[in-house]
Amino acid sequence: MRLPSLLVLPLLASVLLLCGCRDEPLAALERAADQLQANLDDKATVSALEQLHLQFHARDNLDRDWAARTMALLFLRHRQVEVVVMARHCELDSTYSERGHCRAQVALAGAENLLPDSARLYSVRSEWWLEGGDWQLARLDWE
What we know:
Strands 1-5-4-3-2 form a five-stranded mixed sheet. Helices cover 40% and strands 39% of the residues. The model is unreliable at 1-22 (pLDDT under 50). By secondary structure, the chain is α+β, with helices and mostly antiparallel strands.
């Protein structure tokens, strides 16, 4: 049976929208991770802190105040800060729809002039929680 041409376009658009809805939370999580990277690169402390969940913890015992102090120290010490994500994989939690996880290899470099005077490579694991339609960083750990 052949569908009338007037029905094909709305049907195709409906299928594309349904496919997109399933991937939208993951795409939003990846955008949130990209935005955090951009905020750190831009030394936008307030914007970066807004992306941290109120119950944020790093390494089980470091909180939002630690994050604020660490960013302030890093940004005062280095005129230029660059966060380079070499590989990142994000996925939604299979049990809790409002949780997502990302793993990444991250290089953090700081410089006073053109050349970095410090750089470190980290393996980073993060857990993000969906709050009010926005993904917020809730847990952070690294090696």
